[in-house]
Design brief:
By secondary structure, this protein is an alpha+beta fold. The chain is built from 3 helices and 8 strands; from the N terminus they run αβαββββββαβ. Strands 4, 5, 6, 7 and 8 form a 5-stranded antiparallel beta sheet that branches. The protein starts with a helix and ends with a strand.
């Protein structure tokens, strides 16, 4: 697999499209950090780390609107790919849906959102957009 982060985002996207309640993805430090941000920002209900010998996994409980059953994530897309890395400075930080969505940035301070990157005055690689 050349891009495990794109696979992670695609599994979440496909689970929402299929109406699943839970999705399981292989674990890595970056995927755990992305999942933590999605949970903190209210895009997923919860997550649970499952340890297995060769490689663990993350069970993610997806979030839907109670009445309309609409998914909490309208769109989740990969920005920086292995073939074309996208970096940004603090001045050129992207705004997703005019501030309604989030951009997840991989910076020297760790995996953070665009708003946190502006507060810390750091730039980095734009991993994905979520709204």
């Amino acid at each position: 697999m050349t891009d495990p982060i794109a696979d992670y985002l695609t599994r979440i996207r496909n689970a929402y499209l299929a109406g699943k309640k839970v999705v399981e993805v292989p674990t890595s430090k970056m995927k755990v950090a992305l999942t933590k941000i999605l949970c903190e920002k209210g895009y997923i209900l919860s997550y649970k780390l499952i340890d297995a010998e060769p490689q663990g996994s993350i069970k993610i409980a997806l979030k839907y609107h109670p009445q309309t059953k609409a998914p909490a994530i309208k769109k989740i897309e990969r920005v920086s790919t292995p073939g074309l890395r996208r970096y940004t400075s603090v001045e050129d930080m992207p705004r997703v849906l005019n501030g309604l969505g989030i951009a997840i940035i991989s910076s020297s301070k760790g995996i953070i959102t665009d708003k946190e990157a502006k507060e810390m005055n750091v730039g980095g690689e734009v991993v994905c957009y979520v709204y």
